[in-house]
Amino acid sequence: KQWYQRRVAITAGIDSSDKKRFDETGEELLELLEEEKLSKVPVLIYANKQDLFKSAKPSEIANDLQLSSAIRDRQWQIQACSALTKEGIKDGMEWVYNSLGTPKKK
To answer: Quick check: 105 pLDDT over 80?
Structure first.
């Protein structure tokens, strides 16, 4: 839990082609979000393996995990991606950057 000290954002990945594990992944994510030191930290969830025909779309994953009702205290995003083709990876990191806002001058 020491790595929580320098938190900026939470980035998680879900195998969009393995619908049987959505519940398990969702439970692990929600457990992580209960950590006090991670409150209000934006969450990016990569919906990986979008290059496969059988993959669930990000909206389907959000509905299955009930993220709209489960994550209310922070910004969150599900980004379609493929680690194989690298499609969507940069878009997710840009979302994280933009969700952090403009740094305040000292």
So the answer is: no
